[in-house]
Amino acid sequence: MSVLVVTGGSRGIGAATALLGARAGYRVCVNYVRDADAAQRVVDAIAATGGEAIAVQADVSVPDDVERLFATVDDLLGTVTGLVNNAGVVAPAARVEQIDAERLTRMLQTNVVGTFLPAREAVRRMSTAHGGPGGAIVNVSSVASRLGSPGQYVDYAASKAAVDTFTRGLALEVADEGIRVNAVRPGIIDTEIHASGGQPDRAQRLAGTLPLKRPGRAEEVAEAIVWLLSGAASYVTGTILDVSGGR
Fold it and tell me: What is d(CA 217, CA 207) in angstroms, rounded to the nearest whole number?
C-alpha cells in the first residue's frame, strides 16, 4: 500500500491533505511539531473513515528529528511513496530593515531546510537508484515567492522562492529514478497561518482584492496536491502549480 508523509499535517492545508490522501488510499503519517492533540484529531478522522494513520512529532528543521520521523514511518507504515513538504512558518508584517537575524534564521531553517531534509530522506527511500519503488514529492510554496511581499514579509517570500528553485532542481536530479517532484503555490487561503503572522482576519480582509473575490479553502489546495501525487499526474514533474484564485 502507498505511504504518505505530510509535514505540518495537524492543521490547515496539511490536515486537509492528510485527510484527502487517506481517502485516496494512502497510509498517512501526520507530522507535527507542537500540537499533539490537533494531530491526533486528524488521525482519528482518518480512522473514522476506515483509513490508517499515525501522528509523529518532529521538527523538520532538525536533522535528527527528520531521520527519526522517517524511521518511524518505515517501522509502522512501510516505505514512503509520497511526501508533502507542507510545514512552514510566517512572521508578523515587517520591513526588511526591521527583520533581525533570529527571525530570518528561523524562517529559513523551517521553510527551506525543513523542506530539503524530508525530501532527502524520501529520495533515499524512493529512488530506484537506491532500490526504492519510486514515488512523488509535492512542496508547498506560496505565490509570495513571485510577488515578493513588500512591506509584509520579504523573508517569507524569499524562503518560498528557494522552495521553488529546489523543486525544479530536485525534479531534474531524480527524474530518471522514478520520482516526480512538483510544487503548489497557494494564494490567500483561509487557514490559521494568518493568525500566526499577527493578522487573523487577513484572508477575509483581502478577499475583495482577489480576482475570484474570495479566499481559497485548504481543501482546494489539497485537491491539487493529491492530484500531483497521483498517477493522473504521471507526466508532470518540475512544475509549480498556482492555486491562487488568479492572484
Answer: 12
SS (H, E, C) 98-152: HCCHHHHHHHHHHHHHHHHHHHHHHHHHHCHHHCCCCEEEEEECCCHHHHCCCCC
CA distances from 105 to 10, 66, 100, 102, 114 (A): 23, 18, 9, 5, 12
Question: Could you tell me the CA-to-CA distances from 36 to 7, 192, 242 in Å, in that order?
Answer: 13, 16, 30
Please name the amino acid found at residue 90.
V
Give the Cα separation of 78 and 60 in Å (integer): 20
From residue 64, alpha-carbon distances to 61, 70, 81, 207 in Å are 9, 10, 21, 41
In the chain, DSSP assigns E strands to 3-6, 27-32, 53-57, 82-85, 135-140, 179-186, 240-243
Q: Which of 26, 32, 153, 156 is catalytic?
A: 156
Domains defined for the chain, CATH in brackets: 3-243 (3.40.50.720)
- 156 is an active site residue: yes
Please state, for a pLDDT cut of 90, what percent of the chain lies above it: 87
User: How do residues 169-213 score in pLDDT, each as one tens digit?
Assistant: 999 999 999 999 999 999 989 866 544 545 566 666 666 676 767
